[in-house]
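Sequence only, no structure available. Ideas?
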Amino acid sequence: MSTVATATAKEVFDLLHEDLAAIEREFGQDAVSAVPAITEISDYLREGGGKRIRPSLLLLAARALGYSGKGMIKLGAVVEMVHTATLVHDDIIDAADTRRGRPSTNRTWGSSKCVLVGDWLYMQAFRIALSERKFRVLELLIGLTQQMVEGELMQMEKLGKPISESEYNDLIYRKTACLFEVSMRLGACLSGADRPLEDALGEYGRSLGLAFQIIDDVLDLTATEQVLGKPVASDLREGKATLAVIHALENGILPADRTRIHTVLRDRTFDYVSHEEILRILNCNQSVAYAMNTAYAYAATAQAALAVLPDSDYKRALQWMPEFVVARDK
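Reply:
I predicted one. Tokens follow.
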């Protein structure tokens, strides 16, 4: 690995390749059930790929602190299983047709089966986590699940309505950043780190997760369907106000433009105001740039939190992660 401050994508892939392959195998074994539908849907979800950022964070945190036991493979599968369960439930709630460029599970198997598979994945994740016999591991996972459920319910209550930036931050913490934070904390926990060190790595995960979700929300507005693998502007079409939209509404746009944004949020359609018109409003108000700059600031906070770690290839990989998150195009 290079001696520069941060790693490269290839170096990070090479560093984690064997551990991530072991997590994939563990996930595949743990997602087998006597009920064929559970195994079939779980395999379909796992084979859909994804960035595997969350288990990567757990691996990097554990290894940066000198841990090399099998617990990180088991818990890496646990966090990916929890993440997968949330995707299943999200697609059901949003009535999504696609996920990562493929038909969503609820479209293929129906919502009734899929919500139960999501529940099964949650419970299976907890069963596997029990094998570590660490109270702190269970405490983190229980708190995580509560936060994520609360976040989903809070978002449902806010659909179609403008929200404040602080409300948005609370929502994306619960729905996304909390799992990034817990992944880092679990890695620290496996290594036997004290609470201040765990808290520092938790702050890294929290800030990285916030940056990740803000970028996700910007890409939903600005990317193409071919790149995203799903319809663009899904958030607005579902009545969700994300950071660029919130910034525009809170920072003196013309009354007519404010009405246009409210119309899309309320009606959850672009039948009366086009996606292009919304983008024009956001760009004229520098709102997309504001959201991007906020993500950059969170990424910098994440990197600063790593000062507690000794220098290593794993620390350099963690320093690379925020740069990857804010530079991605999907």
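The chain has 16 helices and two strands.
Hope that gets you unstuck.
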